[in-house]
Amino acid sequence: MAWVSLVVAGLFEMFWATMMKLSEGFSKLNYSLLTLIGMVASFYFLAKALHSLPMSLAYPIWTGIGAVGSILIGVIFFKDHLSLLTSFFVLLLIAGIIGIKVTSGH
């Protein structure tokens, strides 16, 4: 269940980052509120995951899910451009997240 909580926390990390972008500097109330709700939910599920998982495992995976997911959202929905080199480093992030999980023993 801790892994499910951690993945949900990462998904909410992506959600609040997207809502913050849409809030246009917190000038749009609805998106600003959704940003705060997403932040609280992300931290809540991270805290649940930390009951069973070590911080040295859970925190980097949580941030990695949020980072990679936000990059994908930026590219798909906001038409952000990634250079070939940047794409390579995103793949390294994904490999790092998978590597941390596989070698953690949890």
Could you characterize the architecture of this molecule?
This protein is mainly α. It has one domain (2-104). Helix content is 82%, strand content 0%. It has helices spanning 2-22, 29-50, 55-77, 84-104. The longest helix has 23 residues, at 55-77. It is flat, with a radius of gyration of 15 Å. The N and C termini lie close together (12 Å). The mean pLDDT is 96.
Major sheet description: none
Give the number of DSSP strands. 0
Helix content: over 70%
Low-confidence segments, given as residue ranges, are: none
Q: Compute the separation of the termini in Å.
A: 12 Å
Summing up helix and strand content along with how strands pair, one would put the structural category as mainly alpha
* Shape, per Cα inertia axes: flat
* Count of spatially separate domains: 1
Radius of gyration: 15 Å
Q: Note the total helix count.
A: 4
In sequence order, what are the helices and strands, one letter per element? HHHH
What is the average per-residue confidence, as pLDDT, rounded to a whole number? 96
Residues in β-strands, percent: under 5%
Main location: membrane
Protein name: SMR family multidrug resistance protein
Keywords: Cell membrane, Membrane, Transmembrane, Transmembrane helix, Transport
Subcellular location: Cell membrane
